[in-house]
Amino acid sequence: MSDVRQFGAKGDGITDDTEALRHAVESGDGILFFPTGRYLISETVKVPVPPRGPCAISGEKGASTVIMSGSGPAFQLIGTHGGTGDPGSVKSGVWQDERMPTVQNIVIDGKHPGADGLQLVETMQARIEGVMVRRMRHGIHLIKRNRNVIISNCHLYHNTGSGLYLDRVNLHQINVSSSHISYNRLGGIRIESSEVRNLQITGNDIEYNNAKSHGDLPSEPTAEIWIDATEPKASVNEITIASNTIQATRSPGGANIRILEKADTGRPPGLIAITGNVIGSQENNVHLSGVYGVTISGNTIYSCAQRNLLVENSSLVTIGSNHFRRHTSAMGTGVRLTDSSDCTISGCTFRDESETGQVSGASLLELEGCRRVAVTGCVFADGVPYGVDAANCSDIRITGCIISGEHHTRRPMGALRFRGLGKRNGIATNNLLGNIDISPEAGVSFNENIN
């Protein structure tokens, strides 16, 4: 390994080691080793993966710190891979000299508002493990094209931009696991204007990613996980968000998970699974807009200012076996679907535990302008004003549910309300306790319910 001190780096936190590190990149063996110390740099250290062969940046068991006092990324890893993830598209030189550029066991700390931690450009099979990035703009920044990225056991903490930022990148295969991604002002994991396939976010703690811990810096709408594929050439497919803790403090326009898609006349968006997570404490915990083919299952989703789950202009959304609740009287609970079709809600529990209803005034399940939605086997407890509340909907089927309340409230509680114009709506084999308010124009038929 190229010990950077052998190339003139001092590691005393005072001397500018930028040129020494560049010397190590140019003349070393491709593996930059940082003994324990604090290495001050003022400009980006570019690490071109070719022509020296496989490269790595390695600290000494996390006891090595690089301090970036200038703008731009502290380290920029630059490859030449222009193919896809298909082995046949990878040039032999890329396999030989560029595979698995690695950054590990090092702390990258910022002293400039325009500083970033790591930037990856056209890399193949990059691996980032055991890295801490703090007080930067973006922690890890992926641009242009990258393939097969693995990020694990990292701390992306208290940065003014995003912890992990996928920025106009063409990227297939990325795994983010076992990491803490917290207190980043513009989001924990943020994807914008990109083409992404095969994203796995698993086993992480992703929380408090908004402006509240950043003093006078302005607040902007953000999310722990923000995926925006609304631009014409952007698309996001094949995503798993599983077994994470995804929490926040409420912020204006905020969400824990926000996925924004667009109507696509070519390959449809979708193939997204959100499962087995604990998600809570934002304006909307999960916000989906324009999505197609999303499964949300086995999650505990709690404490919203507006909705636990907000689904807009979407289709083929499967919502199964989730627990929706409020965790504090200052917050609320509930699910809202608007202008959406071909969705199912099954095996979920909803409960409003307050005596006065929610601050938002929302019912537990709201459907507006929806078509072909099946609600089966759910429990709606103590909804104020209603357990299920629908307006201008058609082909809604509610079967085998319990919609009831047991405590007295200062506001009237109802089981069901259907308003506006609709047709072929069916309410069958449910247990209903509470007022039922059905407009004649709503097109609702009842069969074998227990009142």
Explain the layout of strands and helices.
Layout: E1 2-3, E2 12-16, H1 18-27, E3 31-34, E4 37-41, E5 45-48, E6 56-59, E7 64-68, E8 72-78, H2 92-97, E9 102-110, E10 115-121, E11 127-134, E12 140-152, E13 155-157, E14 164-177, E15 180-182, E16 189-192, E17 195-202, E18 205-207, E19 223-228, E20 235-242, E21 245-247, E22 255-260, E23 270-275, E24 278-289, E25 292-297, E26 300-312, E27 315-320, E28 323-325, E29 335-338, E30 341-346, E31 349-351, E32 365-368, E33 371-376, E34 379-381, E35 386-391, E36 394-399, E37 402-404, E38 414-419, E39 425-428, E40 431-432, E41 435-438, E42 444-447
Parallel strand pairs: 1-3, 2-4, 3-6, 4-7, 5-8, 6-9, 7-9, 8-10, 9-11, 10-12, 11-12, 11-13, 12-14, 13-15, 14-16, 14-17, 15-18, 16-19, 17-20, 18-21, 19-22, 20-23, 21-24, 22-24, 23-25, 24-26, 25-27, 26-28, 26-29, 27-30, 28-31, 29-32, 30-33, 31-34, 32-35, 33-36, 34-37, 35-38, 36-39, 37-40, ...
Write down how many β-strands occur, each being a DSSP E stretch of 2 or more residues: 42
> What distance lies between the first and last C-alpha atoms, to the nearest angstrom?
76 Å
* Classification by helices and strands: mainly beta
Using only C-alpha atoms, the radius of gyration works out to 25 Å
Task: Summarize the biggest pleated sheet.
Answer: 11 strands, parallel, barrel
Helix content: under 10%
For the largest sheet, list the strands in their spatial order. 11-12-14-16-19-22-24-21-18-15-13
Overall outline? elongated
Mean pLDDT: 93
DSSP helix count? 2
Low-confidence stretches: none
In terms of DSSP E residues, the strand content is over 45%
